[in-house]
Amino acid sequence: MKNIEKEPLTLALPKGRLTEQVKELFEENGMGFSFENRKLVAHDKQGLLKIYLVKNSDLPTYINHGIAGLGVCGDDVLFEAGYPFYKLKTFSFGGTAMCIAGHKGDVLEYTDKELKIASKFTNFTRDYFSKMGIPVEVIKLNGSVELAPVLGLTRYIVDLVETGNTLKANNLEVIEKLADINVHLIANPAYYKIHYKRINEMVDRIKDGGKDE
Predict the structure, then answer these.
(1) How many Å apart are CA 195 and CA 88, to the nearest integer?
(2) Sign (positive/negative) of CA torsion 137, 139, 145, 150?
(3) Burial 129-162 (b: 16+ CB within 10 A, else e)
(4) CATH of domain 9-94+182-212
(5) pLDDT surpassing 60 at residue 1
(6) How many CB atoms lie within 10 A of CB 167?
(7) Where in the chain is the domain with CATH 3.40.190.10?
């Protein structure tokens, strides 16, 4: 029978820049790791963590089903997934903003008619405008949402904005910031209840200027 206290904690990371930032932070805190030869599983140097590299949008599913007990994920992905997780730490990196944007000089006009908005973030968009009592039709796009107003599909888009350079290149601009989007260390609630002592010790080791929840 396995001794779960001797098994490494499991952590899912999203492919891309966030993983590189986590990798750098963990190295600074004595938990360095690397994915070798295109492998998708790694261990930290001290054997405390077993780390999985997954697609960003799939990460909440792996945590929810207990494949990994912990994960690093942004508010945008968490909101779309809709699963209940514990947020253990908010990191100082990876933050961005969810904004509504349109043609340069455009304003947000509320009328009796539905706002027609294109977005990858359909749950967030519907929820945000529903709370404001504004009817909205959300058209889901998986690619470059900036094309929607350029090609006349919708007047507005809701998307993550970091530098705004892509918007400017397409003669678009932010009309209004809707929410700050942060990156968190999350946990499956059942997994946390079993391993909370070791997880809390790990969280205490991670010093990056972020905020513990």
Answers:
(1) 13
(2) negative
(3) beeeeeebebeebeeebbebbeeeebbbbbbebe
(4) 3.40.190.10
(5) no
(6) 20
(7) 9-94+182-212, 96-180
What CATH number does the domain located at 96-180 have?
A: 3.40.190.10
Give the strand order in the sheet containing 86-90.
Answer: 41-43, 49-54, 9-14, 70-74, 183-187, 86-90, 211-212
Q: Which two three-digit tokens encode residue 12?
A: 């899912």
Query: Would you say the C-alpha torsion 136, 95, 11, 144 has a positive or negative sign?
Result: positive
What Å distances lie between residue 105 and 27, 175, 203, CA to CA? 45, 8, 45
Two tokens, residue 29: 């805190």
**207 close to 90: Cβ distance less than 8 angstroms:** no
> Are residues 71 and 136 in contact, defined by beta-carbon separation less than 8 angstroms?
no
In this structure, are residues 118 and 145 in contact, taking their beta carbons and an 8 Å threshold? yes
Give the Cα separation of 151 and 155 in Å (integer).
Answer: 10
Read off the pTM.
Answer: 0.88
- Per-residue model confidence as pLDDT tens digits over 82-135: 999 999 999 999 999 999 999 999 998 877 678 999 999 999 999 999 999 999
Question: What are the backbone dihedrals phi and psi of residue 120, each rounded to the nearest 5 degrees, phi first?
Answer: -80, -20
* Tokens matching residue 157: 């888009």
